[in-house]
Design goal:
Distance between the termini: 56 Å
Mean pLDDT: 89
Shape: elongated
CATH topology of the largest domain: Metallo-beta-lactamase, Chain A
Helix content: 25-40%
CATH superfamily of the largest domain: Ribonuclease Z/Hydroxyacylglutathione hydrolase-like
Largest sheet: 6 strands, mixed
Strand content: 15-25%
Number of strands: 20
Strand order of the largest sheet: 1-2-3-4-5-6
Structural class: alpha+beta
Number of domains: 2
Oligomer: single chain
Radius of gyration: 24 Å
Low-confidence stretches: 1-15
């Protein structure tokens, strides 16, 4: 049974144009645990003025109550923060009651929605705006809890509908089966806290067991009471990760085995499925790496390998001069790895995912699992070399079709004249570098003739990450 409980309508304030009604509902699937202690919340958001328009954020409310509270307004949208069942269990009934309402959900999950016609689906992308009369909601892709997590932000009135990204006093778990990721979650929280003002009013997807009051909550309070946000503000990446792992442990999956020489046939098959021909490692090279103590972690589903990540340990440290960084890819990829005792960093030289699984969060999960193994070996510093396929453009075969980006090429060329690294915006133009930046890495060094890779003009960007503490002293 639905039990609506109204938050203080934002329309009560003469300076606020949007009215927000909150509906507190226990999910029918709740069987104890977090969801029972923190009932779901949906929000009816209505613009002011004569052309009032409404959107329902998350589909866990009673359609009869929604129809009653709409008054003369029209329900134009049902906006889903993510596809978990406790946020969508009323969707079929809602679409039956409001058949013209568009259903907004992040583009990767549009096939996961039950109820409503495909013609009414609105695939959301980061930065997309949704108009409600004279008001605007901006969709912010905020992965971490799930890959498809979205927050809806009304910047003018400083309202954030945060789903399971930020709760009152906590954050969501990392739901691995839905593309959740602790490392990506950290980046998301850092981004949000950097962008939102302290007086931002917070409307999460669950009632807060910590505060025992209905929303809105506010970002200023979260900065002093929410342990995850406090860790993110202080740059305590490791503490954030360990706390979230303890909260998420029941949702983690054990499908990321470490490989050895006995798996060489499966590894070679995957190598050909992942890489363009000129970058595929031979059977002999892979065996050499494993023989020299390199680490190779894979992810598999239904007995098939989907992706892999390889690394070795090195004596190089971020405290050393950049000119001491090894100048050849082979200095890492086919060299004897340091022992854990002698190592000061890990060098990741191989992150690959099958073509059909790209843009699904699989590559980011490989990085997270590798980070955990590296941290367990008492290593904090991680380097990775990123390709630059948009430097020349790459159309070598079906594995890769990337256009040249002249602005990016010019920024890289300037580096070799001025020794000034391109800015973050310029680096983010390249899809490969952008992937590592989204996973917390910072570009550190560009090396010419590091590897034979024509689309990258034989160059690579070396990126750096500290697994425990954000460290910007090297910039």
């Amino acid at each position: 049974m639905s039990h609506p409980c109204r938050a203080r309508p934002s329309g009560n304030c003469p300076h606020v144009k949007m009215k927000v009604l909150a509906y507190r509902t226990h999910s029918p699937a709740a069987t104890g645990g977090f969801v029972d202690r923190n009932p779901n919340l949906s929000y009816l958001v209505t613009s002011g003025g004569q052309s009032a328009r409404s959107a329902l954020i998350d589909a866990s409310a009673d359609p009869v109550k929604i129809a009653r509270d709409l008054n003369q307004s029209k329900l134009e949208y049902i906006l889903i923060t993510h596809a978990h069942g406790d946020h969508t269990f009323s969707l079929h009934a809602l679409t039956a009651r409001f058949p013209d309402a568009k259903i907004g959900i992040y583009k990767s999950s549009r096939q996961d929605i039950a109820g409503g016609s495909q013609g009414n689906l609105l695939p959301l992308e980061n930065g997309m705006t949704i108009s409600l009369g004279d008001e605007v909601l901006t969709a912010m892709h905020t992965p971490g809890h799930t890959f498809d997590s979205v927050c809806f932000w009304n910047q003018e009135e400083n309202l954030l509908f945060s789903g399971d990204t930020i709760f009152g006093g906590g954050i969501g778990c990392s739901a691995y089966g839905s593309g959740g990721n602790r490392n990506i979650f950290y980046q998301t929280i850092v981004y949000l806290i950097g962008r939102l003002s302290p007086d931002t009013r917070l409307y999460p997807g669950h009632f807060s067991e910590h505060y025992q009051t209905m929303p809105p909550y506010n970002i200023a309070t979260e900065k002093v009471k929410n342990p995850y946000i406090i860790n993110a503000i202080q740059g305590k990446r490791g503490a954030f990760d360990r706390d979230l792992k303890a909260f998420s442990i029941e949702f983690e999956t054990d499908n990321h085995p470490m490989m050895d020489e006995s798996e060489i046939d499966r590894i070679c098959i995957l190598e050909k499925q992942i890489w363009i021909p000129e970058l595929q490692a031979s059977r002999e090279t892979i065996l050499t790496r494993l023989h020299y103590g390199h680490k190779l972690l894979t992810t598999e589903n239904n007995g098939e390998l989907d992706g892999m990540i390889g690394w070795c340990y090195s004596k190089f440290s971020i405290g050393d001069s950049p000119d001491k960084f090894p100048r050849r890819f082979s200095d890492f990829s086919t060299s004897q790895a340091c022992t854990n005792i002698d190592a000061r960093s890990a060098f990741i030289y191989n992150v690959g995912v099958k073509a059909g699984l790209r843009q699904s969060g699989t590559g980011s999960l490989l990085l997270q699992w590798a980070f955990e193994k590296i941290r367990d070996d008492s290593i904090q510093q991680v380097f990775v070399d990123s390709r630059l396929p948009s430097y020349h453009g790459s159309k070598l075969d079906s594995h890769e079709n990337i256009k040249q980006i002249p602005e990016f090429k010019e920024a890289v060329d300037r580096y070799f004249d001025s020794h000034q690294l391109p800015g973050e915006r310029e680096f983010a133009l390249d899809p490969r570098v952008r992937f590592y930046m989204m996973n917390g890495f910072t570009p550190y060094l560009i090396l010419k003739d590091f590897i034979q890779d024509f689309p990258s003009n034989n160059m690579r960007v070396i990126c750096y990450l500290n697994l425990e503490q954000d460290d910007t002293s090297y910039r």
